Amino acid sequence: MDLWIWITIGVVVIIAFMFAGTYNGLVRTRNQVKNAWAQIDVQLKRRYDLVPNLVETVKGYARHERETFEMVTQARNLAQQFTSAGAGERAKVEGELSSALGRLLAVAEAYPDLKANQNFLALQEELTSTENKIGFARQFYNDSVLRLNNKTQEFPSNIVASITGFKPAEYFETTLETERQAPKVSFS
User: Fold this and answer.
1) CA nearest to 142, candidates 39, 43, 56
2) Is residue 187 pLDDT above 70, yes or no?
3) What are the extents of the domains in the chain?
4) Is the Cα torsion angle 87, 132, 123, 63 positive or negative in sign?
5) How many whole angstroms separate alpha carbon 121 and alpha carbon 114?
6) Per-residue b/e over 55-75, b at no fewer than 16 CB within 10 Å?
7) Taking the CB of residue 23, how many other CB atoms lie within 10 A of it?
8) Is the C or the N end of the chain the one with fewer CB within 10 Å?
9) pLDDT: is 100 or 109 the higher one?
10) Buried b (16+ CB within 10 A) or exposed e, 150-159
11) Quick one: which of 109, 46, 118 has its CA closest to 76?
């Protein structure tokens, strides 16, 4: 009889350790997703700070492109209002801002003096660097979401996840068709 009690206690202890280990793994993965999201936020804030400077620089050369400037400004303001939104909604408004910035840079192409302006070139380089960092942060975030979603759906961690309230996270992916298309390059 004593042997069965010890075996039962041993099994309960093993299950408790497995539960705790799985729970801790879920917590680590969820925190990694939160950290990855914070990294996207940092880069998006950096982009928001660059946009007004870029718009003002281009305005000096392209005074009749008012509609484009307003579109970029509105897209930036909208994106800043969605800072606490979920990944899906945020991806949509950020995609609209990216699209508007692309149109602004296309306008700049029509002005040779602007393209030679050192301030514009520096801002354009900074924006390109920021867009690359956003892309890397977004990839890291989506990889982290994949790990969390796998853990919340795979056995046996899905049992621990459902008991402790862990939910799958949302990917940061674009819904705009313009972002899914390859950019058009012209050397003329």
Assistant:
1) 39
2) no
3) 2-180
4) negative
5) 8
6) bebbeebbeebeebbebbeeb
7) 16
8) C
9) 100
10) ebbeeeebbe
11) 46
How confident is the model at residue 185, as a pLDDT? 42
* Cβ–Cβ < 8 Å for 120, 105: no
Task: Tell me, rounded to whole angstroms, the distance of Cα 131 from its chain centroid.
Answer: 11
Q: How confident is the model at residue 176 (pLDDT cuts 50, 70, 90)?
A: low
Tell me: the pLDDT tens digits for 45-58? Answer: 999 999 888 888 88
pLDDT at residue number 150: 96
| DSSP letter for each residue of 87-99 | HHHHHHHHHHHHH
Give CA–CA dist 49/123, Å, rounded: 11
Residue 38 · residue 83 · CB < 8 Å: no
The three-state secondary structure class of 161 is helix
Is the CB of residue 20 less than 8 Å from the CB of residue 128? no
Closest CA to 151 of 14, 33, 15: 33
- CB of 124 within 8 A of CB of 53? no
| pTM (two decimals) | 0.76
How far is Cα 53 from Cα 166, in angstroms, rounded to an integer?
42
Q: Residue for token digits 């093993």?
A: 14
pLDDT more than 70, % of the chain? 91
Region 59-66: mean pLDDT is 75
